[in-house]
Amino acid sequence: MPRRGASLLDDDFIGENGLINKRLFDPDKTPMYASIRKQYLIYYDEELQISQLCRARATSNKITINRSTLVIHIFGDCRKAKTSSTFTGWAVFFGENDERPSGWNYQDRLRQDAEQTAWAATIKALTEALCCTETITQEYPEIKDVRIASESRELVDIMTVKIWDWVEDYDIDSEVDPVRYFNILAITHARLEHFLEEGYNVKFWHISSERNEGARAMVNSVLGNQALPRSSLAV
Predict the structure, then answer these.
(1) Could you tell me the sign of the dihedral formed by the alpha carbons of 22, 23, 29, 32, in that order?
(2) pTM over cut 0.85
(3) Cα separation values, 118 from 38, 105, 160, 190, Å
(4) Is 214 in a helix, a strand, or coil?
(5) Read out DSSP for 5-21?
(6) Fewest Cβ atoms nearer than 10 Å: which of 40, 159, 200, 204?
(7) Residue 173: Cβ-neighbour burial (10 angstroms; 0-12, 13-18, 19+)
């Protein structure tokens, strides 16, 4: 995790140990976002076809759109796990308005020769989200602050805390890994560090299933339009 003395941004998370975590986003603990009701926190820009955060001005408490932000919701899930008819799907959700989805939205099933688990689908959604991030930030250079929203507490914990120690203690080609798909997560970590060096601040935001309805609906559509139970996420 980034250490004491690092440059502190307005929405950087400071842990109880005093360390600055530049990968973790929690709007409830960020002054510019904490006063905004959840239903108004995210704004969908129809022209750019992306979601952005709304913030409150410190002096007037006036709500404005934070044009430097990009919010991406991700989701991956598996049905009929460990059976011959397993279906696994993933989605990246950039928003929609009046049921017209963003052109950046994307969902698919995992290839049949891939591991059919919710964790594998979540990792796939993350890598696709970062690919979209690269394209969008090139197209709209004003976007510098990317927030990846996920229901997976494990993913958020790994990418915001655990990964720093893991990349020091484990080799990417090691036969023993601390977590499934460690090699992909280690490469993703290096990619995020490069983003930061280039001036792009990517953070992870743990959300509830109720706040991830767009991405969930996309996975529903790719897996047969059968609604997912709220407790279906196993990662």
Answers:
(1) positive
(2) yes
(3) 27, 19, 20, 23
(4) helix
(5) TSPPPTT-EE-TTS-EE
(6) 40
(7) exposed
Whole-angstrom Cα distance, residue 50 to residue 58? 25
The structure tokens 């020091």 sit at 168
| Nearest residue to 166 via CA among 185, 193, 147 | 185
Q: Please say whether the beta carbons of 88 and 108 come within 8 A.
A: no
For residues 92 and 124, the answer to whether their CB atoms sit within 8 Å is no
Instruction: Name the residue among 1, 35, 30, 34 with its Cα closest to residue 18.
Output: 1
pLDDT value of position 83 = 58
The residue among 90, 46, 51, 89 whose CA lies nearest residue 67 is: 51
Check if the beta carbon of residue 46 is closer than 8 Å to that of residue 104.
Answer: no
What is the mean pLDDT of each successive set of 10 residues along the chain, which is 235 residues long? 52 73 90 90 96 87 93 92 74 90 95 90 97 97 97 97 92 80 95 94 96 95 66 42
Q: Which of 84, 77, 110 is nearest to 217 (CA)?
A: 77
Q: For residue 128, which of 42, 222, 46, 199 has the smallest C-alpha distance?
A: 222
DSSP 176-211: S-SSTTHHHHHHHHHHHHHHHHTT-EEEEEE--GGG
Residue in 163, 151, 168 with CA at minimum distance from that of residue 191: 163
What are the distances in angstroms from CA 26 to CA 78, 80, 218?
27, 33, 25
